[in-house]
Design goal:
Layout: E1 2-3, E2 11-19, E3 22-31, E4 34-43, E5 46-54, E6 61-66, E7 70-76, E8 82-89, H1 95-98, E9 105-111, E10 121-122, E11 153-156, E12 163-164, E13 170-171, E14 177-178, E15 181-184, E16 200-204, E17 206-212, E18 218-224, E19 236-241, E20 244-250, H2 252-256, E21 263-270, E22 277-286, E23 289-291, E24 293-298
Antiparallel strand pairs: 1-10, 2-3, 2-9, 3-4, 4-5, 6-7, 7-8, 11-24, 12-13, 14-17, 15-16, 16-23, 17-22, 18-21, 18-24, 19-20, 19-22
């Protein structure tokens, strides 16, 4: 790969990917004014920088090797002498941890992370070799991610990017969750002026959110829309707030009266637990539970 990043945020390399929330990269990029080789993990939408190494000329060869228990990431100048940057557990990209049904894929990528860019990455070739694995190295330490900072107002849209609605309010991409997976549709959503908040969803048999808040009393506002099923009773689930049932045997289609129609539910007088957290849990009894958007605001 030949690549000369010209501004911070430009990067290119190889990615092993389970889904948008769970993937590993080995690449070359520019960060804080310095060109670096790096290995980065994203696990449950939390980012971990595993290895970083300054590098000079921008022509390198990159390698991902996989075994049953790990992925190893290496680089070389000439394709003969290789240096391993990091080794990471394969379990974090497994279906049991990351969700999904298709397993991981490996490929090339290049991005300016949302910035306008005139740079390019030139890939000479991409080759897949079976049965050729370098000597295993110990797994690299995984740094502890910074905890989510408490706030008195959360707006979350289960998606892969932040979002600004028509009223100028910012909604963060998905965070604070455990379990489930994100999907989206392009259906027109009735009964709302903000259809973008109902076209993404996190869904699964049993998943949850744990969000830190400042002391006080809160209102929890949940948004739903049935965008894939057509018959009442096909999707039924419970919603628990701090362990107590807020919605029991909830059927979005039954409440909405039609598919692709917004349903909003609000719950007042919610207090954080002893750890300063508000917990939301979604448990399915038919098909998957789902949520389209979450807003938690301190009552004034």
């Amino acid at each position: 790969m030949e690549f000369k990043p010209l501004q911070d945020g430009e990067e290119a390399g190889l990615c092993v990917r389970a889904n948008e929330d769970n993937h590993y990269e080995v690449g070359l990029g520019r960060f804080n004014g310095e060109t670096q080789l790096f290995v980065r993990n994203r696990i449950k939408n939390r980012e971990y920088w595993i290895a970083q190494e300054p590098v000079g000329p921008s022509k390198v060869q990159l390698e991902i090797s996989g075994t049953e228990d790990r992925y190893q990431f290496a680089w070389s100048r000439d394709g003969k002498s290789w240096k391993t940057l990091a080794a990471c557990p394969s379990a974090d990209l497994s279906r049991e941890v990351a969700g999904g049904f298709t397993g991981t894929v490996i490929g090339l990528y290049a991005t300016a992370n949302g910035k306008d860019s005139q740079s390019y990455a030139g890939f000479g070739w991409f080759e897949n070799r079976d049965g050729i694995v370098p000597k295993p190295v110990p797994l690299s330490p995984c740094p502890t991610p910074l905890p989510l900072a408490p706030t008195d107002h959360w707006r979350i849209r289960p998606s892969w990017e932040d979002f600004k609605d028509k009223d100028g309010h910012y909604w963060s991409s998905d965070l604070g969750y455990s379990g489930g997976e994100v999907t989206r549709c392009w259906n027109a959503i009735a009964g709302t002026q903000s259809p973008d908040l109902y076209q993404f969803e996190r869904n699964g048999k049993d998943f949850n959110y744990s969000l830190p808040v400042l002391p006080g009393q809160y209102e929890v506002h949940l948004r739903f829309a049935e965008t894939s099923l057509k018959k009442e009773g096909e999707r039924v689930f419970d919603v628990l707030i701090n362990g107590k049932k807020a919605l029991s045997h909830f059927d979005i289609l039954h409440v909405a009266g039609a598919p692709d129609k917004a349903v909003d539910k609000s719950f007042r007088d919610v207090h954080p637990d002893a750890d300063g957290l508000i917990h939301l849990r979604f448990i399915a009894s038919a098909r998957d539970a789902k949520i389209c958007a979450i807003e938690i605001a301190r009552e004034r």
